Amino acid sequence: MRYPAQIALLAMLVPTLVWGVDQAVQNEERTPQSHSPVEMLSQDLRDLLSREMQAVQSGMMSIIPAYASGNWEEIAAIAGKIKHSYILAQGLTDAQAEELHSVLPTEFITQDEHFHYLAGMLEHAADNEKSELVNFYFSEMTESCVTCHAAFATHKFPGLVTEKEADHTH
Q1: If 0-12 CB within 10 Å is exposed, 13-18 middle and 19+ buried, where does residue 85 land?
Q2: DSSP result, 94-144
Q3: What pTM did the predictor assign?
């Protein structure tokens, strides 16, 4: 008697499971594959951008102990390097510069310019040994990173995808 009950339960569950899998496949097919503009860049430009981001990250992490110890000269030097690491100011070929401007949206470029402006302000604050301004500009730079990554690099930082964006389907 035990087996007929299990067979009946299985007969009810299998169509439900198949329907659920079918719905998931249909939803996946309707959801457009979103690619970040950064992913659309050529490999050499993505590598260049990645190296810049790694250098910025290293610099940002080096600022923390320098700030905690009041080493204003080191903070100013690091901030100056970050300010001048601006990808659009580097020795790009004409084709690379055109690719950057044609593939990356204006908002990306604007955010990147703002980040480097903040690095310059951090450099200035450190040169003047203004502890509260060093803290302020470092915080603004960090927020600038998060904002840009949430807009353009969720393929690398999926934790920055907002719940609203994750639930959005067409």
Answers
A1: middle
A2: HHHHHHHHHHS-HHHHHHHHHHHHHHHHHHHHHHTT-HHHHHHHHHHHHHH
A3: 0.72
Q: How far apart are CA 132 and CA 134, in angstroms?
A: 5
Q: How many Å apart are CA 138 and CA 63, to the nearest integer?
A: 8
Of 49, 58, 121, 54, whose CA–CA distance to 86 is shortest? 49
> What is the H or E stretch that residue 76 is in?
helix 72-84
| Closest to 66 measured CA to CA, from 121, 129, 120, 144 | 129
Going by pLDDT thresholds of 50, 70 and 90, the confidence category of residue 58 is very high
Q: Using CA atoms, how far apart are residues 167 and 41, in angstroms rounded to an integer?
A: 27
Q: Is 35 left (phi over 0), alpha (psi -120 to 50) or beta?
A: beta
